[in-house]
Each structure stands twice: as structure tokens, then as C-alpha cells.
Amino acid sequence: MRKRRKSKEIKIGNISIGGDYPIAVQSMTNTKTSGYNATLSQVRALCGAGCDIVRLAVPNVDCAGVFAFLKQNGVTAPLVADIHFDYRIALACVEAGADKIRINPGNIGDPERIKAVSDACRNAGVPIRVGVNSGSLEKKVLDAHGRADSAALAESALENVHILEDFGFEDIVVAVKSSDVPTMIEANEIIAEKCAYPLHLGVTEAGSPARGIIKSSVGIASLLSRGIGDTIRVSLTADPVKEVEAAHAILEYCGLEKNDGIEVVSCPTCGRTNIDLIGLVNDFEARRSEIKRKGGLKVAIMGCAVNGPGEARGADIGLAGGDGVALIFKKGEIIKKVDQSCAIDALIGEINLL
Ligand code: SF4
Description:
By secondary structure, this protein is an alpha/beta fold.
């Protein structure tokens, strides 16, 4: 892991990003923002899953009240208003208590309007995220580059940054996203060289969890492993809670977040497997909430007793499949033999005794 890029510290509500602050996990609600109660439920679910910053699309001024509503109902996580074009929505969201605004000043048009937004944000201590993605590049930039390549994305983002800087506003977070992973990586490398603002990483329109998690992981982890990135969003066509779970997994596997849950290692199975290992692993994952212990614990679920306990020597506890039976082992020592039908009951029972 390379040394982290030194980025500017930016405060978003009650958390900070950039500098040496932990990489923050973000997601976005997909309820209708006008449905305040449904949005509240989803924000709570996201926060419960470990989402540090929650973004909401705000399509019109009437929806801006959602920020006040969420805060009145106990939401403490920083809330971001995602706005396209209309500066009046941005002003209404700042007024209603949004903690960050995502808007591209280049899309607002009239300099007086840009000034009004940057002044309102400055007065309220609200940062602005400049967010450029391949699907929404300005025509001028697209014409100049011929396509939404990394240089075009970076140029557009920096132009938007400069518009804010010209109004004396530097409380900025930058995002350059593409659904093409190499483009997203290169665009962020360019931005990381050219400014010190914190970077929000994400692969946009990554798709279903099956492919999108891999796609996002490749893009985000490539940058994080080289010290680039201050906050991440995994974008999936799914329940946004899945985005948060995937984001934490990326941070964990990049060594940027302590594993405060349970790390499961399981073998790929092979011709020696005489137990339904895939079923057992799925069952274990589905029953994680039954585990009382929260804290670094490595659990191995292995296909055979010949190699399993040995291959999982580093695990605190685990099971190894026999012929329709499972052997429960602790630190490599077999402590129990059970029928495979109750293997996960036995494993979880032993974990809860640790
Ligand atoms: S642990 Fe056993 S079953 Fe699993 S891959 Fe290794 S040898 Fe095969």
C-alpha cells in the first residue's frame, strides 16, 4: 500500500474526509425523495449498515425539506443533496440543513447564481462536490476530446473546480466517474496530480451486484492501494445497503479498515469434497447475525479434513467436511464431529462460546 495522497481536509456535517481521516463510505437513497417516511427508513437502514455519508437526489425545491425532516427524526449522518442545474434547489437544500451539495457550477450558468450558491454554502459551512461523469460531460469538452476519455473527464472536473475557486470557494470534493474502469482510474490519477481536494471514488453505472461489485472493486481498489481516494461509493443496481456492504469489504481487503466483523475463509472445493460446502457457506453467511462476538475473528469453512484444518491454520475456528459429516476445529485442533445437517448450528454455537 503506497503512502496516502495528502488531500485537503473537508468537514461534512459531523465527519471529516481527506487528510488522514478514514476513507468514508457513501451511498445514495433510491426512494422517491418526496416520500419522506420511506426515505427516512432507507437512510436508517443505510446508516445501520455502516454508511458514513448519505446522498439524496433532490429533483425540485419541494423535496428540499427532506433534510430538515430527516434531522428532526434523529438522523445524524451527514446528508448530501444531489442537484442538477437548478441553483434554487441548492439554496433551498442548504437552508433546510443539507451537509454537502453535489452540483456542477458549470451547469448552473449565470455567474450570479453560482456566486449565490457558493456564498450560501460558505456561510453555512457546507462543502460542494463537483461530480463529473462520462454520461454528463459538457458538449464543449466532449467536442474537444471527441469522447469521454480520462483527459476529458479530468478537464471538465478541473474547470468546474476553477469556477468555484474564482468565487473564493475552496471547500470542495471532486469526483470523476466513468463506467469504464481504466478511464475512471486514469481520470482520478490526473486529478490527484493536479489538485489537493479530497477525491470521491466510484465506478458509475457498475451494474448488478454480481458484476458491479467486481467492477467497482477493481477501479476503487486500484486507486486506494496507491493512496488515492478519500471517500468511496459502490454504485449498484440493487438495494443501496448492498453498496455499503461492498464498500466496507473493499476497504477491508485494501487493509484500510479493521475487520470488526467476522472474516470467513472458505475453500473453492475440489474432488476431495464430500459435503455440501457451498450450501454450508451460504447458510453461515445468512446466519451471521446470530454471532454475538463482534471483533476480529477468522472462521474457516473447508471442504475436507485432509487438507482443510491445515490450509486454514490461521483461523480461530472452523469446520472441515468429512463424508456427510463436519469436523469442528479450533486453532487447527479438532474438537467435535457433527452431522452436516447441524454443522452450522454447531459452528455458530462454538463461536458464541469463544
Ligand atoms: S480444503 Fe480440501 S476440499 Fe477444499 S479445496 Fe482444499 S483439498 Fe479440496
